[in-house]
Amino acid sequence: MKVPIYQLDAFTSAAFGGNPAAVCPLERWLDDETLQAIAAENNVAETAFYVPENGTYRLRWFTPVAEVPLCGHATLATGHLILNRLEPERERVRFETLSGPVEVARDRQRLTMDFPALPLQRELDPDLVAGPIGVRPEALWEADRGMAVLADPVQVQKLRPDIGRIAELPFKSLIVTAGGFDGDCDFVSRFFAPKLGIAEDPVTGSAHCVLTPYWSRVLGKKSLFARQLSPRGGELWVEDRGARVQLSGDCVLVIEGSFALP
Questions:
Q1: pLDDT of residue 213
Q2: Which residues are catalytic, by number?
Q3: How many whole angstroms separate alpha carbon 208 and alpha carbon 132?
Q4: In whole angstroms, what separates CA 233 from the centre of its chain?
Q5: Same domain for 81 and 142?
Q6: What is the pTM of this model?
Q7: Tens digit of pLDDT for each residue in 202-250?
Q8: pLDDT at 109
Q9: What is the rounded CA–CA span in Å between residue 197 and residue 190?
């Protein structure tokens, strides 16, 4: 049995930047063990699988070790594949997911996604993450993950965290963020998820469901431009829409082939 597979670099306009995502269109669902094995074999941050369902698509995302409820870059990659390669006559595509319905639509040269906002739940003691990330943040928040706010974007850029100690934190993942570089961007971030098999995620759409409402409130503006400062780097145009967040970016198709299953 052969399964189509595409690999795209998301949140970048140039190949070998952004966040690589594998996308596998399926006619019907394979068992979860096989889906997880494919994701482990791909060994990228997320592999997306989708199946036609009632005129739309059911979309699921797997890291190398687990299924996740929300993933931005693999959704952008899946939308790009459908809208620019497989069904170019379409203007938008809707997915049913574990986090509810999400859409990817054309927005001039980019694609735009509509995601649920993830509000901050409580403030924690910054000392909790000072050792693991090597610097004491100005603030530490919990949403559905941890978010450490640093004083300066250079601190985020030069961060050398202890990934083993991050894995011991009481969060499934950790965002580290700061305001942006003057004249360049509104805010920056990095994202670490060793519990999900991802030491550092290159560009994380779902993290911006937390970051967008936070920085929108801090900076007093709804539309913002963000950079994720991983070694590969990535660019996101985001907008705070209350209960929803709009995420926009580019994608580049880099690999096309098939996955041979026993």
A1: 97
A2: 46
A3: 22
A4: 13
A5: no
A6: 0.91
A7: 999 999 999 999 999 999 999 999 999 999 999 999 999 999 999 999 9
A8: 84
A9: 16
Distances (CA, A) of 22 to 76, 118, 178, 183: 11, 25, 30, 34
**What is the model's pLDDT at position 58?**
98
Q: How many CA atoms lie within 13 A of 4 on its CB side?
A: 13
Domain coverage including residue 148:
122-242
Which segments within the chain are labelled E, that is strand?
2-10, 19-25, 46-53, 56-62, 67-68, 92-97, 100-107, 110-116, 122-124, 139-142, 146-149, 174-179, 187-193, 198-201, 223-228, 234-241, 244-249, 251-260
Same domain, yes or no, for 20 and 83? Answer: yes
Angle at 158 between CA 45 and CA 190, to 5 degrees: 30
- Record the tokens describing residue 138, joined without a space: 């100005």
Supply the CATH number for residue 171's domain: 3.10.310.10
Q: Is the dihedral of CA 84, 5, 200, 69 positive or negative?
A: positive
From residue 257, give the alpha-carbon distance in Å to each of 46, 209, 223, 260.
17, 32, 37, 10
Which has the closest alpha carbon to 49: 82, 20, 86, 22?
A: 22
Do 47 and 137 have their domain in common? no
* Closest C-alpha among 167, 203, 200 to residue 188: 203
Unique residue bearing structure tokens 């850029």: 157
Measuring CA to CA, which residue among 262, 258, 255, 260 is closest to residue 21? 255
Task: Identify the segments of the chain with pLDDT beneath 50.
Answer: none
Residue 137 confidence (pLDDT): 98
Distance CA(79)–CA(62), nearest Å, equals: 17
CB-CB contact of 22 with 35 (8 Å):
no
